Amino acid sequence: MRIEADVAIVGAGFAGSLMALALRQRGHRVVLVERGRHPRFAIGESSTPLANLLIEELADKYDLAQIRPFSKWGSWQRSRPDVAGGLKRGFSFYFHRPGEAFEDDDHHGQQLMVAASPHDEIGDTHWYRPDFDLNLVREAESAGAIYLDDTAIDRPVFDVARITLSGIRRGDPIEIDTGFLVDASGPRGFLVRALNLHAPPLRWLPPTQGIYTHFENVARWDSRDVGAPFHDCPYPPDDAALHHVFPGGWIWVLRFNNGITSAGAALVMGPPQGGHYRSFSEGGSRASLWDDLLKSLPSVNDQFANARPVHPWVHSAPLAFRSTKVCGTNWALLPSAAGVIDPLLSTGFPLTLLGIHRLLDVLDTTPAGAGREAALRDYERVTLAELDATERLVAALYASMDDVPLFKRLTLLYFAAATFSEAARRLGRPELAPGFLLHAHPDFGRDLHTCCERALAKPRGRARDELCTDIDRAIEPFDVAGLLDRSRADWYPARGEDLLASSWKLQSTASDVTELLARCGFTHRAERPAVRL
Ligand SMILES: Cc1cc2nc3c(=O)[nH]c(=O)nc-3n(C[C@H](O)[C@H](O)[C@H](O)COP(=O)(O)OP(=O)(O)OC[C@H]3O[C@@H](n4cnc5c(N)ncnc54)[C@H](O)[C@@H]3O)c2cc1C
């Protein structure tokens, strides 16, 4: 089989299929190559407001009405109940001391809840990737992309203006002749291997490992009496990305509406911190690493008492990865192929979607030649800068996992940047929020950088207190969500009043914000009580 294409995309995860769909809408001949076959297990499931906004923008810009419902829980459930997913109302964090049952007081010293939505209808989602990715690849095929699954391709051969990919599909040779190659094959993927791209260890984050699978019968954390009262909290804690944090790592728990729960741990490698779990490198099996870890976290152990894995364990070590090269004359890695930092704060989807937008712009607006090469260099620069900003923040969080108040303060940098960026974009003022995590903002970007560097030095005493004060100071001009209101005791609901009171920070009027809240369904009445007990 010989195929001629304008763009070949390697990897049919959600990113490759979205790229294919948008390119087809612009009339490009697209071939999408996948080594596996859908439906298949994939990790990376928890979405965010920014990721959802980027999906909406993609849908609107490329006339992809079929993907827009996936940007909100309510529209997804109404239009595509056949695609499994989970409700994500926010980020829930519980901080554990190894060997002790989880306990908390009325001030929520050992927890943090940040709502992303005021009610379920416009809630975010967890994507059950076997269904979600299958649906997208079908859409890409319906839109006219040539989809080749079960396909193993060899090294690409680069000619002056074309690239040839040869491979085998179900025993038959295939050859693809393409003008541009997009690598959407995930970390340590196709081009990184084929071109032997340099990927040195990360700079700020210590080496980490990931261990994860899908389970059934995971108890709801909010169904248990674990010492913290759950009434009055901003949303049911399990309808969220649930984080159990402890020195040296953390566990995620993401519930889908089909009885499956995704859970796993990201752990610092090397000698276990505090000696409370064995390192996988010490020769334990994947299941025994997980069991050891849970034994050290009695309340989490209770949550998983009846849980049963329904997919083989996946062990990823090292977990993080970053290529130093992202593109060439006629090829580019998507951000998810260029790097993965950590699941903490669910940064993978927005980074990938931002990259998809940027790369589509390049392919759409610059013909092959010098102009496109310059645009690709810019794509590379921004992609790497965003990965670096993410790594610095995540590394600062890892360095603070034994200091709960500082860890919480650092996460507020993320929440301030995320809420401000989303509001600015939705108000049609994206220029107010440059760069992922506002890293390219002259004030916030500088403060984010220095606060993270200072946290990495593990400050104690006065230096640490000064850091907390400086984080608050950095957040203040961008806080549109009441994040500095200490009376909330680390439970932050999503309130329209906060955005209204901060409209001036977004260089907008109160009526602009009122109109925005109505347009986004923020003021839609909740159909069920905010908290289910
Ligand atoms: C443990 C973990 C948890 C994460 N959790 C989150 C999260 O909660 N939220 C979030 O936003 N991000 C998360 N991420 C990041 C997230 O996984 C990625 O951003 C996302 O999966 C990227 O999607 P993708 O389609 O680009 O790549 P993938 O989902 O990795 O898909 C790549 C596809 O390419 C195919 N492929 C690979 N090699 C080849 C080849 N040589 N030829 C052909 N096909 C190939 C694969 O089979 C696969 O189908 C997480 C990452 C990890 C490691």
Structure description:
- With 533 residues, this protein is an alpha/beta fold.
- The strands form 4 sheets. Strands 1, 2, 7, 8, 9, 10, 11, 19 and 20 form a 9-stranded mixed beta sheet that branches. Strands 4, 5, 12, 13, 14, 15, 16, 17 and 22 form a 9-stranded mixed beta sheet that branches.
- It is globular.
- The relative contact order is 0.14.
- The site of flavin-adenine dinucleotide has 34 residues, from helix 1, strand 12 and helix 9.
Q: Helical content, roughly? A: 25-40%
- Strand element count: 22
In whole angstroms, how far apart are the ends?
59 Å
Task: Provide the gyration radius in Å.
Answer: 23 Å
Ligands, deduplicated = flavin-adenine dinucleotide
The number of helical segments is: 15
Mean of all residue-level pLDDT scores: 94
**Class by SSE composition:** alpha/beta
Strand content is: 15-25%
List the helices and strands and how they pair.
Elements: E1 2-10, H1 14-25, E2 30-33, H2 49-61, H3 73-79, E3 85-88, E4 90-95, E5 111-115, E6 124-127, H4 129-142, E7 146-148, E8 151-153, E9 157-158, E10 163-169, E11 172-183, H5 190-194, E12 208-216, E13 241-246, E14 249-255, E15 260-268, H6 286-295, H7 298-303, E16 308-309, E17 314-316, E18 321-322, E19 327-328, E20 331-333, H8 335-338, E21 339-340, H9 348-365, H10 370-399, H11 404-426, H12 444-456, H13 461-475, E22 491-492, H14 496-501, H15 510-519
Parallel strand pairs: 1-2, 1-11, 2-7, 4-13, 5-22, 11-20
Antiparallel strand pairs: 3-6, 4-5, 8-10, 9-10, 10-11, 12-15, 12-16, 12-17, 13-14, 14-15, 18-21, 19-20
The structure holds flavin-adenine dinucleotide (FAD).
